[in-house]
Every structure is written in C-alpha cells, then in structure tokens.
Write a structure and sequence with these properties.
Oligomer: single chain
Number of strands: 0
Shape: elongated
Structural class: mainly alpha
Radius of gyration: 16 Å
Strand content: under 5%
Length: 127
C-alpha cells in the first residue's frame, strides 16, 4: 500500500468516525434543541457524508493513485463532504441560513467527484 493510499484511508477513517459520532450526538444530545427542519438538515448531512465516506473507502482501498480521474474523484468527494455536509451541520446547529449558499457548491463537488470517477474508469479501459 502506498503512502498516498494510506493518507486517504486515514481520511476515510476520520470521516467515518465523525459521521457516526455526529449522528449519535444529534440523535441523543441535540434532538431536544433542534427543530424539525434542523433535524432534517442534520440527517441529510450524515446520510451524504456516510455514503461518500463509503465510496471514498472503496476508491482508496483499490485504485486511488492509479490515474488522475480517480484522484479527482477522491478530492471531489472530500471537498463535497466538507462543504455540503459541513454547511448543513452548521446550519442545523446555529440556525444561520446564510450558509445555505455553500451547500450547492458542495453538492456540485460531489457530482464532479462522480463524473471524475466515470472519466477515470473510461480512461483506464482505453489505455
């Protein structure tokens, strides 16, 4: 396993830990303090973070450093999780909806990650 791959797997481990901890904290510690809308934001944030953490795990464990498309997919998912889920977490906890403009930027990064994965797969098949 390359050191590059090890770094990505470490990031996956941190993200996995955080999503479980944040989900549990929201369900047990924050629930009395969050209104229904904030609870939905938190749930959406943890759902997207978990799915993209799992996708990143699969990519990092197999062929993350083999081509540029795969590396871009990893970065897209990481940035997307930070911006998409992060903005939803912050909006849920603070009630500050001025952060809402960040959420679609994160969603776009997630989409670009998936597109980059597709391009990486196509390019690896061609070469």
């Amino acid at each position: 396993m390359s050191s590059y791959q090890q770094r990505w797997l470490a990031l996956v481990a941190v993200s996995g830990f955080l999503v479980v901890a944040l989900g549990a904290f929201a369900a047990h510690g924050l629930k009395p303090y969050l209104d229904e809308r904030a609870q939905e934001w938190f749930k959406l944030a943890t759902t997207y973070q978990m799915w993209h953490t799992l996708a990143l795990l699969g990519l990092a464990a197999t062929w993350i450093d083999k081509n540029k498309g795969f590396r871009l997919a990893a970065w897209g998912w990481l940035v997307g999780m930070l911006l998409f889920s992060g903005s939803l977490y912050l909006m849920a906890v603070t009630g500050n909806t001025r952060l809402a403009f960040i959420t679609p930027i994160g969603g776009l990064a997630l989409l670009l990650g998936w597109l980059s994965l597709f391009v990486g797969v196509v390019r690896s098949r061609i070469s």
